[in-house]
């Protein structure tokens, strides 16, 4: 029964995160991109902070954990999360997605697990990538190039730059994931997420001001803008991250990483139904290359996971 539960939650999470790209595209029709991202995490951060206070159990929870960071390492973890996982990732993503489809953006972001492994190996030389792993990273990058389809005579075309920005978003998230693990602070994940979201929202507001984005609250009352903001803050962020960390504990990193490869399916279908977006053959081919790259990089962990599944099926 627990396997059915996990599978069901996995599909829910994939749907939440896949359709989030469609909500971003819808909201960008009414809100400037960086301000839109900042407003999303104003709401999500407050929700997560409330949940962190509840989950940890007040000012001083079990094992001395708290709902706020303490000490240099814990604040460093929250700062890296705010700067890379929230601010840089969403600034690049929201600006880039102005000029590309939800499906294409979700597929480029699905390269994140491959980049995460690459950054981990790069920052820890004693754990270098094998030749097959290096080939996997290269194949994944080729997949992104296929999706971007850059024109050598016009490398700064709007759509090529947009997809490059989405790639930088994926790279920011991957680097942030590695750095937060490297710091290895004993910070409860709920606390880390809450303070990263709030700090990231503050940084995004600063970037929005620096870019001179128009501050027009009257446009925020559009039903589509409000719906997109509510969905992203509550559904994709607050509920999505809770499901993610629940499944991470139950399934492990390999299985949960596969969310990145199921989410684009939901993004493509909903984007086609709601926004009339079309996924071309080259985008699908690029996605296939990214999946091949992931399989090469994670081949040992996937082999071990298949072994666990086979033992579970056989009842051992």
From TrEMBL:
Main location group: membrane
| Protein's UniProt name | EamA domain-containing protein
Q: Which residues cross the membrane?
A: 35-54, 75-96, 102-122, 129-148, 160-180, 192-212, 224-244, 256-275, 281-297
Keywords from UniProt, A to Z, are:
Membrane, Transmembrane, Transmembrane helix
Q: Write out the GO cellular component annotations.
A: membrane
All copies of the EamA domain together span 9-147, 164-297
What InterPro entries would the database entry show?
A: AA-Vitamin_Transporters, EamA_dom, EmrE-like
SUPFAM superfamilies in UniProt: Multidrug resistance efflux transporter EmrE
List where in the cell it is found.
Answer: Membrane
Q: How does it sit in the membrane?
A: Multi-pass membrane protein
């Amino acid at each position: 029964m627990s396997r059915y539960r996990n599978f069901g939650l996995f599909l829910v999470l994939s749907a939440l995160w896949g359709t989030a790209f469609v909500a971003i595209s819808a909201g960008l029709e009414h809100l400037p991109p960086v301000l839109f991202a900042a407003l999303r995490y104003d709401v999500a951060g407050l929700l997560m902070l409330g949940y962190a206070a509840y989950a940890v159990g007040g000012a001083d929870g079990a094992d001395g954990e708290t709902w706020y960071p303490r000490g240099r390492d814990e604040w460093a973890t929250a700062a890296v999360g705010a700067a890379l996982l929230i601010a840089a990732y969403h600034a690049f993503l929201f600006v880039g997605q102005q000029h590309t489809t939800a499906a294409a953006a979700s597929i480029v972001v699905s390269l994140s697990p491959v980049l995460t492994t690459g950054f981990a190996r790069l920052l820890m030389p004693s754990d270098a990538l094998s030749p097959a792993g290096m080939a996997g990273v290269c194949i994944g990058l080729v997949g992104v190039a296929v999706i971007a389809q850059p024109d050598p005579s016009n490398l700064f075309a709007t759509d090529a730059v947009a997809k490059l920005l989405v790639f930088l978003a994926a790279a920011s998230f991957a680097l942030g994931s590695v750095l937060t693990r490297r710091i290895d602070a004993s910070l409860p994940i709920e606390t880390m997420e809450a303070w990263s979201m709030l700090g990231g929202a503050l940084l995004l507001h600063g970037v929005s001001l620096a870019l001179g984005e128009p501050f027009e609250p009257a446009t925020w009352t559009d039903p589509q803008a409000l719906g997109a903001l509510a969905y992203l803050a509550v559904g994709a962020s607050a509920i999505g991250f809770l499901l993610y960390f629940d499944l991470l504990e139950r399934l492990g990193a390999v299985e949960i990483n596969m969310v990145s490869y199921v989410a684009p399916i939901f993004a493509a279908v909903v984007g086609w139904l709601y926004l009339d977006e079309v996924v071309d053959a080259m985008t699908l081919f690029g996605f296939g290359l990214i999946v091949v790259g992931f399989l090469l990089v994670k081949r040992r962990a996937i082999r071990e996971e298949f072994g666990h599944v086979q033992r579970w099926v056989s009842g051992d």
